[in-house]
Amino acid sequence: MSGLLRREWPLLTVLGLVTLGLIVVVSGHFRRGCVVIAFALFLALFLRILLPVDGAGWLAVRAKRTDIIVLAVLATATTVLSLWVPPPNN
Length: 90
What we know:
Layout: H1 2-7, H2 9-26, H3 30-50, H4 53-56, H5 64-84
């Protein structure tokens, strides 16, 4: 099990940040939570760019170029949409 955790640290880090973002959303801070999730996606993008296939673990799903394009689109769209949503009126 220790070897799996050591090998999959990039994915576990990203999933931990996404979980944190979802907790923030559930606690009533939609925009902040979505920004945390967008940060997690940008982190996944940069880890996929920087790490070799052996070091990326399960972040390497498809060809490197495809993974980078998909993560860049998702991270950018999440950021834009999370900042586009108007704040709630209290």
